[in-house]
Automatic annotation (TrEMBL):
Organismal lineage: Bacteria, Pseudomonadati, Spirochaetota, Spirochaetia, Leptospirales
Signal peptide annotation: none
Organism domain of life: Bacteria
Gene Ontology MF terms: 6-phosphogluconolactonase activity
Coiled-coil blocks: none
Name under which the protein is recorded: Lactonase family protein
Length: 479
């Protein structure tokens, strides 16, 4: 009823103004002057826009309080001071608060909702609600904050030798320095770092088990906690829940869930659910609500709902959607808005929008045009602006720009891997500044710096590995 009254009031006011303007010459004294022809347009824009350009005090009481941070996804870096983020507000703010409280080191000014400070901890993408109050109104806006870890360690898993190589990371240059190796299981092809950065988990495809390691927070050395069965056959892929102490293992015909004892790092299986044959990869969205499991042999990907309390996926598929031929690897943007799939045979990338309400996927146009052969792995920079993919048969990395509005990918640009052969695994470090590629044939890792302005790469040399390196991950640490 209130909105109807306002609408009638506005229409009546516009009618009076229109008749008045037919008789009185226009006085161009600004868009808020009732005798200016643009005044009516200003009033309309007042209702629908929040950039402040068309706000007029006369209409300030007719619209809701509006608060806008220009982006709902905020990237900060551990121990780096944030340039204050000043939001737009349609009215003066008298009080502002966040639920939950912002990460330690970040501050929310209660008088104007400005976010500033120096984050102490690295953390995965986390949702916050910012509630602002003016003198008479209130509004709440959602934002996502991701705090990038300072890179400290890197690990490479080697398929043939079954070894995991350890490296220290120079945080200023991104260069890797070899520090040793340890044995995993048979034929390892996938690994991941726990959200706490304390544990490394390796899925061993040939020996049907998982190796769990603790990470020394001082020097990055690995200590094996032993191997346990994977809960199925041929564990090809794994991923950690972003906020819970859980690991999801993609076996050839099921998905197993393991809980991680945060005190000891040991794993215990808590659930197994069937999944279609044809394992290739697995991914969970940044907020831990949905699990995505491709069907490598069927040009499909399945979507599962994850229980918000237990973290265990419901075995009932909520959606199955088409992909390209032989979907091999997945990548989800850290803001949770888009998912990308590498299609093995088609040598391209399929793009999807993730529905925030139900996790279902919506195809975004056509797949990218192939610019190489033997497409393998994919990685997104944590700001969500660029996608990188390895072409194993073309000795190259393809770079794609992500449309900030919808998530569409630009046509890729091929970047040659000059000193390696058979680029396979790819990973962007925990700070988002460096990129690493494992070369399957020459058994080394190419190192690159990422231009944070345009996503381009600068080669920084390479470092040796054990035999047939297939995957690489990096880790940081918290105080």
């Amino acid at each position: 009823m209130k909105n109807q009254f306002i609408l009638v009031y506005l229409l009546f006011s516009f009618l009076i103004l229109f008749l008045n303007l037919q008789c009185v010459p226009a006085k161009l004294n600004g868009t808020c002057d009732p005798e200016t022809p643009s005044f009516a347009m200003s009033a309309l824009l007042e209702i629908g826009f929040d950039d402040g350009q068309y706000l007029c005090p006369l209409f300030g009481g007719l619209s809701n309080l509006r608060l806008n941070y220009s982006s709902d996804y905020i990237i900060v870096r551990q121990n780096e001071t944030l340039i204050p983020i000043v939001p737009f507000s349609s009215e003066p703010i008298v009080h502002c608060e966040s639920t939950p409280s912002l990460p330690i080191g970040l501050n929310l000014d209660e008088s104007n909702c400005v976010i500033s400070g120096t984050p102490i901890y690295g953390m995965n993408s986390t949702k916050y609600s910012i509630t602002a109050n003016s003198r008479t109104k209130q509004t709440t806006v959602p934002i996502i904050i991701k705090s990038l870890f300072i890179p400290k360690f890197a690990y490479v898993v080697n398929t043939t030798s079954g070894l995991v190589n350890s490296y220290s990371v120079n945080a200023s240059s991104g260069l890797l320095n070899a520090s040793g190796f340890v044995a995993a299981g048979g034929g390892p092809e996938s690994m991941g770092i726990s959200p706490s950065q304390k544990y490394l988990t390796v899925a061993n495809r040939s020996s049907n088990d998982i190796t769990q390691f603790t990470i020394n927070q001082t020097n990055g050395s690995l200590t094996s906690l032993g191997n346990i069965p994977s809960g199925g056959n041929s564990p090809l892929a794994m991923t950690y829940h972003p906020h819970k102490d859980l690991v999801y293992i993609r076996n050839s015909d099921n998905v197993s869930t393991f809980v991680v004892n945060q005190a000891t790092g040991t794993l215990a299986i808590v659930n197994t659910m069937p999944a279609s044959p044809g394992a290739s990869s697995i991914a969970v969205d940044p907020f831990g609500n949905y699990l995505y499991v491709p069907r490598y042999n069927e040009k499909l990907v399945d979507v599962f709902k994850v229980d918000s309390t237990t973290g265990i996926p419901n075995p009932n598929i909520i959606q199955t959607i088409g992909t390209g031929t032989n979907p091999r690897n997945l990548e989800i943007l850290a803001n949770g808005k888009n998912l990308y799939i590498v299609n093995d045979v088609d040598n391209n990338i399929s793009s999807y929008r993730i529905n925030p309400d139900n996790g279902m996927l919506e195809t975004l146009g056509s797949a990218t045009i192939a610019i190489g052969v033997n497409a393998r792995s994919i990685s997104a920079d944590p700001t969500g602006r660029y996608i990188y993919m390895t072409y194993q048969g073309s000795e190259s990395i393809s770079i794609y720009k992500v449309d900030p509005s919808k998530g569409y990918l630009s046509q890729g640009i091929a970047y040659p891997v000059n000193q390696g052969n058979g680029p396979t695994g790819i990973s962007i470090d925990s700070s988002g500044k460096y990129l690493y590629v494992t070369n399957f044939v020459t058994s080394n890792v190419d190192m690159f710096s990422i231009n944070l302005n345009d996503g381009s790469l600068t080669h920084n040399g390479n470092v040796g590995t054990s035999t047939l390196p297939i995957s690489i991950v990096t880790a940081g640490s918290n105080p």
